[in-house]
Amino acid sequence: MIPRILVIDDEERMCWALERALSHEGYQVVTATRGLQGIEMALETEPSTVILDLKMPDIDGIEVLKKLKSINPKIPVIMITAHGTIETAIEAMKIGATDYITKPFKLDELKVQVKQALHLSNLENEVNFLRQELGKKYGKMIGQSDAIKEVILLIQQVAKTNATVLITGESGTGKEVAAVEIHKASNRANMPFVAVNCAALPEQLLESELFGHEKGAFTGATNRKKGRFEMADKGTILLDEIGDMPISMQVKLLRVLQERCFERVGGTETIQIDVRVIATTNSELSASISKGTFREDLYYRLNVMQIKMPPLRLRKEDIPLLVNHFLEKFDPSHTKKISPDAMKILTRYDWPGNIRELQNAIERPLIVCQNNEILPVHLPSELLDNLKETSEPIINLPEAGFSLEELEKRLFIKALEKNNYNQTKTAKYLGISRPTLLYRMNKHGLKF
């Protein structure tokens, strides 16, 4: 999107000169010769930056600045002032002005200030966007079980340090979420969080992705590229699935962890970095060391602090909380709720895919469920199949014996009552066909 500059100055010639000069720089420029008019135009045009004269005939420039900041606190405002009002300009900066320039000034000087103001504004917008995306992509730690409380405590303790962290656990247990929580709770929270999946890229691409490359370093390297380590400077880098990193890359990573420096692929310049490293793995690195596929010295460099994420089957009391979280995420208008019977099935399942599988199991019913309550029938078939395999019916046997036919009759009556006498639902509930149900009902003289 082309940046839009709003110029508010009572001198028409100044407005004309700035509009012409800034338009040549590729900006859209709108002008106002009165303060109140400028406020109205700010509301209408939503400018990227405002250039505001401190002295206006109808309303003081400071008042215009206050109004602009009330409309959009983030908008960059450059004040134009005369030599005798520099103190006032400084006061304007305390209120929220980005910069000021004194008359007479060179257009090139103002162009630089505009470019800097836009750059800072873009960076702030990018940071806000990335923070929102972190929340969308990785979510947050949810749970009240002892297992997850222990993890949260470890996160709080290690976040206060700059120690390297190794997060282990099965796939889908929330290792990436834990990494984000460490970053958000650290003194690097306002700096970049950069993630790279070590298992997703071949060796040559992974090296370029981590350390960057110089122009001409290899075929297709038409420009210099910054690597993820360089992008994460002063922040945090997440090395996801570190156990799948090629052994030759492990040597290069070890040097970065030891010396906090590297060279881009095809380059000679040594780049110093200040980066907090968090690595995750779902494999047993000790077994990989024995096989010779993972370096022991790298393991000890990474394993300064280890956090083990518990599988969902060991924290089943957290399932209702997670289910409600995913319902909120996928159905923010709260049009659907989960039935008690469906919740029972969710809490009995062992979840081999952990939280990721649970998330998918909630998203699917929201698509197929046509009413406002998610029932067992809406859940994925593997959950229902598992329930059939593992569930044992509870039968209270009378002391004086019983008739098998009478027991079957009572079973059918209870099943029909439970399903509001809907024969199709009752047949599905009992795991039989509808004709079989009708035959059995007729046999026992059941007519509803």
UniProtKB/TrEMBL annotation:
Keyword Magnesium applies: no
Keyword Nucleus: no
4-aspartylphosphate modified-residue sites: 53
A Pfam family assignment: AAA_lid_14
Residue span, Sigma-54 factor interaction domain: 141-367
Keywords in alphabetical order: ATP-binding, DNA-binding, Nucleotide-binding, Phosphoprotein, Transcription, Transcription regulation
Domain of life: Bacteria
Residues in Response regulatory domain copies: 4-118
Purpose: May play the central regulatory role in sporulation. It may be an element of the effector pathway responsible for the activation of sporulation genes in response to nutritional stress. Spo0A may act in concert with spo0H (a sigma factor) to control the expression of some genes that are critical to the sporulation process.
Protein name, as recorded: Stage 0 sporulation protein A homolog
Taxonomy of the source species: Bacteria, Bacillati, Bacillota, Clostridia, Eubacteriales
